[in-house]
Amino acid sequence: MAGRPSEGGAGPLSGPALQSRLRDRPPPDAGLPRRVRARQPALLRGRRPQREAGRGPRRRPGRLHRPPLLRDHPGRLPRPDPHLDRTARRHDPLGAAARGGPDRRHRRRRHPARVRDRGPARHPARPRKGPGRRLTLSRPRPAVVALLVAALGVAAYLPGIGRQEWVGTEDFRVRIAAECVERGDFLVPTFYGRPILTKPPLYYLALATVLDLAGGRSPAEARLLSLLALAATAAAIAWVGARRGGPRCGMVAGFGYLLALNTIKNGVNAEIDPFYAALAVAALLAWWRSLDLDRTGWALAAGLLGAAAALTKGLAVLPLVAAGAAGAAVLPGRPRPRAAIAALLPVAAGLLAWPLALRALPAERLAGAIQESEGFFSAWSGESVIETLLFPFALVVAALPFSLPALLRLRAAGRPALDRFLVAAVVGAVVAMLPSATKATRYLLPYLPLLVLAGVLRLERFAATSRFVAGLGAAALVVAAAAVPVVRTTLDPVGALVLAGLALAGLACWRLAARRPEWALAFLLVPARGLFTQVYVPAWEAAGQRVEPAVERLRQLTTGARTLAVVRTESPRLTDPLALDTRFYWDPKDLRDEVEAGRRFDAILVGIKREEFEFPGYHEVGLLPFEGKHLRVLRPDRP
Question: For residue 121, what are the contacts with CB-CB under 8 A and spacing of at least 6?
Fold first, then answer.
């Protein structure tokens, strides 16, 4: 077997140097607690034959061999540890021998998930009971695990997807996509007829395609694209988790992300962020596979996915690049230059493609275009400093409950390489976003699945997955009991049925967690999502968050108006029912300049808190409460 070049020369290790290497190598579980180390088989704990103590057979110097316990084992070989570092095995050919395993470098390596489980070991001379051979089922492949997680995610999130009204900027994105379809031009998106260049057009193209297939523009139809993106994200982390830690690890990771607080609340909103998160997570995991297998093809796939992310959200892809660089920095060895080039060139091309295409257009097509705001490195204030300090805390809260295990401390000797990569990628992305003073939790959405997967890997490493899932079942019982007195005034029969189902699912999760924690989590998917759509949303709407009262109030304040100027209010659901000639302004200075130049509007709707932007010839006629804010309505001094 060809060895790794020695430190002082160019030849492979052999003889005394090889034996010294095997003797001085620390066991792979040196950083694990004693109670976890005691549960692992001795062969997987790195126990080596000690010739100095008089144990083990005499062997020829400089020759690798299998330990006597492994060589003379009468039954099947023990299953390999799924957490062993494949990157370390590639860079260290002697790792298998140091762990007491056979030399299989020249054989096709099979993942533990693809090894058929034939039951407990038995003596070869003892026949099976009954005629014929007993039928055994194989462990599911990672692709099957990913498809199963995606299917259950769609089944849990599809019912009630249109229960909530438009929230945030959902209708804003849908109107832009609809105008692109009406004009037949996706290169220059428009909003109320004005070119809007705040985001690249890939998301609007995908959203328009889904709306065309669905045949409508309702909230349920607009959220189908985000539902598909959510299923793809959960399937991606389930696939990687299954390849690294087995089917149970993959399923727990996928279901854990579907049960995260931010996912339940905002995971299928018709926004850019779920679509961008699917591309970003796929790009980072493809980059991980490239580093793990030393394959340039995976690096190229990561670059193409990163280019699609750049065509979706523009410069917001820079934290993604920082995450990939931080993840590669903590792994042993350095990525090959051709792999780095294959990953970075498509991303750079995606960043430059749309601006160069806009530069080639005539100036009249971009007249009055709405440009991107300051974003990164904008003006700092006391509020932005507080947001910066709370930004990492918001990441942990948004990914609850499986972000808590990701905070567990692991020593270097016991950490898998995938765990190192995930944590470093999340930290690198958060650090890259800290200088921005316009942060929000939705910017963290691409990195929540990585944090969840890191938490599941640590639970598996500490053999604590069953206990953690049982705790989630008990927490579901507590939430179901505590929600009854809180929402009793808005609770309908469907909501009561959902609470009862959540209590039963929590009980089943608590009882089933010891044997099948992955299926215990699957029981919680539908009731947890139903708790939001059938219990939280009615209570939220009863608290005055419906849009109809705001529309009626705006209709009263704009009686007799035919033209309307809207400033910093990205809510077509508020202005479209009035059927007015509407013009949108992102910067209030642009509107003030046009008013001073002589342009007249019958009404102005201002969605900013600062009152220093006054418009000459207009006065305030009232305030419009809308989604926790108070919008100002201005009318001209002279009709």
Answer: 73, 74, 75, 76
